[in-house]
Amino acid sequence: MQSPRELTDFATEYLTIQGASTVGVSTTETLAGGPPSTDLGYVLKGARSAVTFALPLDQDKIIKYLAKEDHAAHQADNFRTGNVATGLAVGLASFWNQHGIPSYGVCSNTVYRPDTPRGMVDFLPDISHRYLAACSGVGWFGFSGNIITEKHGAAVLLGTTVTTAELEPTEPLPEDDKYCDECQLCRASCTSGLFDKGEKSTVTMGGKDFSYSKRKSYHRCDLVCGGFTGLSKNGKWSTWSPGRFEIPENDEEFMPALIEAMKASAPRPKISGGLFHPAMGSTRKLNLTCGNCQLLCHPDRDERKRRYKLLINSGVVVQHEDGSLEAVPPKTARKHLSEMGPERRATYEKG
Ligand code: SF4
Ligand code: SF4
Fold this sequence. Notes:
The protein is of the alpha+beta class and 351 residues long. Helix content is 30%, strand content 16%.
């Protein structure tokens, strides 16, 4: 029988030889007192430990995505990396299961608890990779609440294997080494206004406090990151969404706005690629249109600024009748919409 140290070393090697840039281990003790999505027992009875890892995204594709030069390449890389994260988590779990150690591979994304007041649309994950990653030193919480890593910034996707094995926990990263200087470029790049400017949220895990900017209603991100709309307040740049539905000011207006925008946008031509998301059913696909808060957060402050400039000078996205997306100057985008017939136009903005 292998010792906790040997099992931990094995898991780390299993994941790093397949491309994980950082691996951390949390346990029921180091997660004690954390939010509901840190309850390892939710996915595996008798769970004692979790191995969480980060897989880096392709930085060149991110630059072209932020600059509105290439949507498809980053989207494909993002979805594929997520699937690799799920595959690695399941692979490690399967290895241990076959050696008599009950384990469970957590999906990288898009799995939501059914047993919440509104079920899936509450978007409460079975297990939060983010909390486990902060707790086990895979990365820090940035101001945005995204996990930021020493080498790749926030441009990583996370995966987790939960196991009944007793593993050696790893420490959270030292706060003094965290590169986030609260530049707030993540907040400036978010057209949905998800992040509070000053107020913080704090979670306690294993007696340690972890803080990040308070998030307003998550339906803000659903409306914008869901691809339904995404014009900046000054109208000079947008996300990759061709939608121009108004982005409300108050949290309580977001759910009705989301329902309305979902219905109105349904007849838009299909964008190539994408992902079937459980909350959208089997007839519509999710396409990445934002992720700005994550993708511009590079460890180097000058690079963050450069990416933010690329974004705000990238223009406004319109959609052509064949479904393709193009970034154009704001005036051209306005003309493009005003020349549409009323039915087609109603899929992008309210008359
Ligand atoms: S963009 Fe700036 S404020 Fe936001 S998480 Fe990154 S470093 Fe922190
Ligand atoms: S993904 Fe986009 S809409 Fe969602 S929080 Fe980040 S910047 Fe805001």
